[in-house]
Amino acid sequence: MKGYRRYHVNTETGESGECSAQKKGCPYGGLNGQENHYATLAEAQAAGEAIMAQKHGGVLPSRKKAPKFKARSVDAATSRIGDVVMPNREAALSEQILNMSANIVEYRAEQVGDLLVEPDHGDPNRAKEVISNVIAKAAERGNMHLAEKASKARMVPTSVIMTRDGDKFYTEDVLAKDVAVKTVEDGRTKLEYALKREALGLQLKPGESFKHTVKTDAGTFVVTVSDDGLNEHALANLSPAQRELISTPREMIDIDLARKHLSDEQLRQVISNTQVLDYVAGNPRNIKQQTFEPRTRFMGKSAEERLQNGTQALADFYGSAREAFGGSYKSVKERRDDMANKVKAAAVVSGQHVNTVIPGRSRKNALLISGRETIDRKKAAKVLPPDVLKKITRKTFVPSKKLAREMLSENRFGKIFNARRVSIRVVETP
Question: How many independent structural domains does the chain possess?
Answer without folding.
Answer: 3
